[in-house]
Amino acid sequence: MPVTNTPNASIEYEVHGSGPSLVLVNGLGFGRWGWFKQVPDLSRSFATITFDARRGSDRGLGVGDLAGDVADLLAHLGVNNAHVLGASLGGFVAQELALSRPELVAGLVLVSTGHGGRGQAHMSAGATGKMLGLGALSPKQAARRGLEGATSERYRAENPDEFEWIVQKRLEDSPSPASYNAQALAGARFDHSGDVGRIGSPTLVIHGSEDRYVPPANARALAEAVPGARLLVLEGAEHLVFIERAAEVNRGVLAFLGGGQA
Prior knowledge:
Blueprint: E1 3-5, E2 10-16, E3 21-25, H1 39-42, E4 47-54, H2 63-77, E5 82-87, H3 89-100, E6 105-111, H4 125-132, H5 139-149, H6 153-158, H7 160-172, H8 177-189, E7 203-208, H9 216-225, E8 230-234, H10 241-244, H11 246-257
Parallel strand pairs: 3-4, 3-5, 5-6, 6-7, 7-8
Antiparallel strand pairs: 1-2, 2-4
Domain AB hydrolase-1: 20-245
Keywords: Hydrolase
Protein name: Beta-ketoadipate enol-lactone hydrolase
């Protein structure tokens, strides 16, 4: 597995396909494995980059540090301009990169995310408990509860083996508890509600209509705040819309980015 070491992190990465560069930024608790339904489709049109960044210390970690990992990886790969797709926390990272290093971001796809800040709609207490796995008697049970809250009953009923695989991967290949907590805190502090109006990259916002972890109102607010942004809401889908409705998400991404030069 290719690895690049930066002053801040050791970054493991993969590049699939060829063409304009497209970097996929993970959400909280997910590794690059989480893009298993995107890479096969998107790599037909793009040099699709997935990665995991590992740090010796997460003390004081912020979303700006996570965006710095993306910039460092692109520099290592010699990529001066790329499309960026981020999901959930990865959507925060993608926004940060588009604002702090706009020359790097040709196109922006923001999935299951918002712009942060006090004006955002918050998840319910029940959804928060699900996400955190409250009351679980084992790490596996906690992971299962969190992932059940992120997916629809229909998806789980139609794809039981795939869902079990996701639970297992979440347990086997996810950040350490310290790293998870640091990233969660960084996400909780994130607030670009007053800044996203400065994003100049063409932007597509994708969201599930039944997302319990990031209420759909946040996607609408984000799309309204980013100049010229388009909004794609998939009815009946939950937080992991890019998994349970992968074909529609991938078609939307390909149609938006158009395979044009990045």
